[in-house]
Design goal:
This protein is α/β, with parallel strands linked by helices and 224 residues long. It has one domain: 3-Layer(aba) Sandwich (Rossmann fold), CATH 3.40.50. The chain is built from 5 helices and 7 strands; from the N terminus they run E-H-E-E-H-E-H-E-H-E-H-E. The longest helix is centred in the middle third of the chain and has 25 residues. The chain starts with a strand and ends in a 7-residue tail after the last strand.
């Protein structure tokens, strides 16, 4: 049984990833600020923690490592989107998005890397965004955080090549999650979280000599 960690896995893309990994007979550890009692499975372990703080990340990692010596899959998924232009967004918006979207990814990877190195098929997936490669109006600090997360992913991949640890950047476009709650746009204007989860597993199943460096997904009608 493969051991997986998925940060922020009780809704949206993270939940879809957890469900797909569970279907593939993985044991999944996930975090959320508030655990979901209705999201249960014999191989799912939820841990309540705020990963926008370094201590929250460390607490989550320490919990997993107290139970497991080997981690096969790490999915850095937790994130937050606060719309606004750089010169107009609310004070603190920059820090909150950098801490949640970038710092959590950095610290959770560092905390678990020794266990990942013990795996016979190790893989790290960082859930970035098309905002990691395409700036847009009202993207503000979100775009900054996602560009930085993409940079972190590239540096990490380069550093971990000698360990034969694969690292992929997953870049979804508009996906039907809580971030789009209240939208009047039709559902078929968005990608589905399930599609992203399936592609992550497809990348994981590739031969040991091949890595899917970047996985870019957009709605068939294009960006919103």
């Amino acid at each position: 049984m493969k051991i997986a960690i998925v940060s922020g896995g009780t809704k949206g893309i993270g939940k879809a990833v957890c469900l797909n990994l569970l279907e593939k007979n993985c044991k999944v550890y996930t975090s959320a600020r508030i655990i979901d009692p209705n999201f249960s499975h014999k191989n799912l372990i939820q841990f309540p923690s705020d990963l926008s703080t370094k201590q929250g990340v460390i607490s989550f990692a320490e919990f997993v490592l107290s139970k497991e010596k080997v981690v096969d899959i790490l999915v850095n998924n937790v994130g937050v989107f606060i719309p606004g232009k750089l010169m107009e967004e609310e004070e603190g918006s920059f820090e909150k998005q950098i801490n949640t979207n970038l710092s959590s990814c950095y610290h959770l990877t560092r905390q678990t890397i020794q266990a990942i190195r013990q795996s016979t098929k190790p893989y790290i997936f960082n859930i970035c965004s098309t905002a990691s490669i395409t700036p847009y109006l009202n993207g503000g600090s979100y775009c900054i955080s996602k560009y930085a997360q993409m940079g972190f992913t590239k540096v990490l991949r380069e550093e971990l090549k000698e360990d034969k640890i694969k690292v992929s950047a997953v870049l979804p476009g508009a996906t039907l999650t809580n971030s789009w709650a209240g939208t009047e746009l039709p559902k078929d204007r968005f990608s589905e979280p399930r599609s992203i989860a399936k592609l992550i597993w497809t990348a994981y199943e590739l031969s040991d000599t091949t890595v899917m460096e970047e996985i870019i997904l957009r709605p068939i009608a294009g960006d919103i």
